[in-house]
Specification:
By secondary structure, this protein is α/β, with parallel strands linked by helices. It folds into three domains: about 90 residues, Winged helix-like DNA-binding domain superfamily/Winged helix DNA-binding domain (Arc Repressor Mutant, subunit A, Orthogonal Bundle); about 100 residues, 3-Layer(aba) Sandwich (D-Maltodextrin-Binding Protein, domain 2); about 100 residues, D-Maltodextrin-Binding Protein, domain 2, CATH 3.40.190.10. It contains eleven helices and 14 strands. Strands 4-3-5-14-6 form a five-stranded mixed beta sheet, with helices on one face. A five-stranded mixed beta sheet has the order 11-8-12-7-13. It is rod-shaped.
Length: about 300
């Protein structure tokens, strides 16, 4: 940094024609600017300027060194401009992972519009319900639904969401409406199994505490869309996100139960590894999704 400051002082002094004018341009005192030039000459072991109270003149060595300094400072300015442009312009290969159902319906379909505005970006999607290690597997960002607990990740809320228990009116007419969590024991629960038929629990808020319940039913699956369809067909209760069932809730094809126990903070978030400078391709895609999701009527299409 000192070397660059010294060279900048030298070039500015030559261009301005005096230490006083150069100091004014750089926002320092003439004495400080003179010390920078002195330090440069000492470091180089060469006299660069002939100085008097009214005039500055280049020595022969100073003339040669001046051109090298100009080139170096111009290259530095160009490099800084390139980095600044990189923050304003999205470029490169953007690798995104998202839950299969949500990614298929609400992430990947919005890539073409993003690419139309950012032609220098290539986008790749990995749509999977597996929780992906973004850093180890080389992804730029991921979409997560629910709590994000990894302290090494930055999480940006894209849209509000809840997890609710739902069923068709026909199912509830035949089997009754559950009023408390213990009532789930006598209902056919359509559960998500992440792998190998191991059914995960359903999460609820009960008197300020998080409660996990193991549920049972005659159907389970690792595909959320199929669980959604089974619930609409009256085959049982399902624990689904509001983004997924909004249309059926509005039409009455599905109704929610146990609403007093629902987890409110189960939002849709974009996550990416903590880093000092977030790539423009990541920042701009996140902003693109936020604008899409905030459009009036989007979630009730």
């Amino acid at each position: 940094m000192d070397k660059l400051r010294q060279m900048e002082a030298f070039v500015t002094a030559v261009d301005a024609g005096s230490l006083a004018k150069a100091a004014l341009q750089l926002g320092v005192t003439p004495a400080m600017l003179g010390r920078h030039v002195d330090a440069l000459e000492r470091r180089l072991g060469a006299k660069l300027l002939h100085r008097s109270t009214r005039h500055l003149g280049l020595t022969e060595q100073g003339s040669v060194f001046l051109e090298q300094c100009r080139k170096l400072l111009l290259d530095l300015a160009a490099a800084e401009e390139l980095m600044s442009e990189g923050r304003r312009t999205a470029t490169g290969h953007l690798r995104i992972t998202a839950p299969a159902g949500f990614g298929r319906s609400h992430v990947a379909p919005h890539a073409p519009a993003f690419l139309a505005a950012h032609a220098q970006v290539q986008v790749s999607f990995d749509l999977t319900d597996r929780v992906v290690d973004l850093v180890r597997e080389g992804y730029d960002m991921g979409i997560r639904i629910g709590n994000v607990l990894d302290p090494n990740m930055v999480a940006i809320k894209l849209w509000r969401n809840q997890r609710v228990v739902c069923a068709s009116p026909g199912y509830l007419e035949r089997h009754g409406i559950p009023r408390k969590l213990s009532d789930l024991e006598r209902h056919n629960c359509l559960a998500f199994n992440p792998q190998g038929g191991q059914v995960g629990g359903w999460y609820f808020q009960d008197k300020g505490k998080l409660v996990t319940l193991r549920v049972r039913g005659n159907l389970d699956c690792n595909d959320g869309e199929l669980l959604h369809r089974w619930a609409a067909e009256g085959l049982g209760l399902a624990w689904r996100s509001t983004w997924e069932i909004q249309a059926e809730l509005l039409s009455g094809a599905l109704v929610t139960v146990l609403d007093d126990y629902a987890i409110a903070d189960y939002d849709i978030r974009a996550v990416y590894p903590q880093q000092r400078n977030v790539p423009a391709k990541v920042r701009f895609f996140i902003e693109h999704l936020k604008q899409v999701y905030a459009a009036p009527g989007y979630w009730v299409m």
